[in-house]
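Illustration: TRAP transporter large permease protein.
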Amino acid sequence: MTPFEIGILSVVAIVVLVYLGVYIPIALGLVSFVSILLMRDNFDLAVNLLKIAIGDSVMEYTFATVPLFTFMGLIVSKAGLGSDIYTVMNSGFRKVKGGIGMATVGANAVFAAVTGSSIASASVFSKVSVPQMLAFDYNPRFAVGVVAGSSVLGMIIPPSAMLIIYSFVAEQSVGDMFLAGVIPGILLAIAYVVAIFLMGRLTPSYVGGRSADEMEWMSPMEIADKTLPTLVLIVAVLGGIYTGWLTPVEAGATGSLLGLIIAVFRKKLTLKTLWHALLETGHITASILFLITAASIYSRMLGLAGLPNELGDLLTDTRLTFFWIMFIYVLLMIFLGTILDTASIILIVVPLFLPLVEPMGLSLVWFGIVTVVGAEIGLLTPPLGISCFVIKATLNDPRISLKDVFIGAFPFALVMLVVLIALIRWPSLSLAILN
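Result:
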């Protein structure tokens, strides 16, 4: 077989292995190692490339953003900032049809800005928001759909683990990726609120719910008490990066320190809580490092096979326009989203398309935002919608099936698709803060 044929088979093999349940880094690393061995028939070369991939991943200074932002997210989650923001938002939207759903979206958007984790958001708001919506007679499918849809905001609003992974794969600045994610994240949150408002007007029976007039307005002091810690964190972290006063690594360290201080003042931090947060940070950091290392050797294997160049020549020969290239890319992302998680999609697909996008003069930062939003749709689609599974597991309510969660999330997946099309049509939405 030619190197090109081996490269094609290796991509197929990785997708099949991941779909069969093989751990993603193992699938990437193993298939890449074997492919290099078959192409060059040189065991030492394959081992040396593996050593280089590991060394490059471990020695990257910006990799320190991963444990720092992960630790910050875990600490503020345990400090109860998510439920506090939700309480404030709920007070503001209490008289609007679907208001609790809008409050959930708003709270998720703010919570995402200090955690960067869709899984954490799905877990927190499944416990906080869904029971309250059910208590006010909202449709269970709408209730879980709102939480599932808004939980993916954690993947695009910085600090996002997916933006960090993309920045390593595409060799882009983590700080630039964070800043580029702000406007798309806010745009997606606004689109969700508008969609809920329209659903409340056009399909009130699907939304359900009754007035929450018995809920009292919060006083300015109560609002300040519940929102000020989160706002301080957001301003310190994102403001520090935006002004250039802090690098992403320094911003992560600052956010972690502030998170610890907030947790201590709120009397939410015990030695046991701190130990669990540190352990979980270690587990998440190790898994992401493993992912990045495997992606590094995978990229080298693709280059050795000449697969990106061949794919580029193929698209050039067929004279595909920008529209059709992006159409194929988005279609591929949505299809893979039905069987793979977001990290897998980024690690497998991005190295194939980067050599095609770069010669077209397109911004790789913008391409990263498009990639993450496109891959996020997969978090809401069966059979492997991770956020939907987390919500079902967290609720543990026999009245709500996994099917209900997926059906409830479907309208929000459509809204994401509309926002994705807007981001592709107007790249300035992603790059406005950088310019």
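Reading the tokens back as a structure: Residues 3-431 form one domain.
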